[in-house]
Specification:
Structural class: alpha+beta
Helix content: 55-70%
Family: Belongs to the UPF0337 (CsbD) family.
Number of strands: 3
Protein name: CsbD-like domain-containing protein
Strand order of the largest sheet: 1-2-3
Strand content: 15-25%
Pfam families: CsbD
């Protein structure tokens, strides 16, 4: 393969249920885990609720958005920790 030639990304299922993107024969990269995805989604919902609450003057909805963002951040961070543990356990000592 020549330098600069694009590499097609082909999704392949991993044994632990996550999807792995195959970039080349020697390099593998995994996608986000369930907690990371759900945490990010919750943060987005929170941002929307906060913005709507701010635009309409509804303080209760604005606070609800703030709480959702914090919960989403916590769940995403938990997913990050799980991912770091998995990555550390895969590396040879």
């Amino acid at each position: 393969m020549q330098a600069g030639t694009p590499v097609a990304l082909v999704p392949e299922p991993a044994q632990d249920g996550r999807q792995i993107i195959h970039e080349s024969d020697s390099h593998w990269r995994s996608t986000m885990n369930k907690d990371q995805v759900k945490g990010t989604a919750e943060k987005v919902k929170g941002k929307v609720n906060e913005a709507v609450g701010r635009a309409t003057g509804d303080r209760k909805q604005e606070v609800k958005g703030d709480v959702q963002q914090a919960a989403g951040e916590a769940r995403k961070n938990a997913g990050d920790v799980k991912e770091a543990i998995k990555d550390a356990s895969r590396k040879p000592v």
